[in-house]
What does this fold into?
Amino acid sequence: MPFLWKILHMLAKRRLVRSFKGLHGGYELALAADRISLGTLVNVADGSEFLDRCVLGLPQCGQGHPCPLHEQWKSIRADLACMLDETSLADLAQLAQRKRPRKKK
It folds into this structure.
């Protein structure tokens, strides 16, 4: 729960969610789900350097001193960043809904 509260607090600071105090308090989206990209959420939760780090965790990795996977990760990273930026929270909810098993009657 403490981790979840930290994430919700960060999302509230970025005005992506609103918080309500009191007996019936909680959180709700501050923007329409189709206006919030997964890239924005990842950026809030993991920081903007999430995709910039070396995939092997090597601190010296970079253009001047590439790790063995540097070039492959570079192209995967670009594709991943594009997918996250082009996928909204609404898109994710629709995908999850479609994959949910249907109850048998």
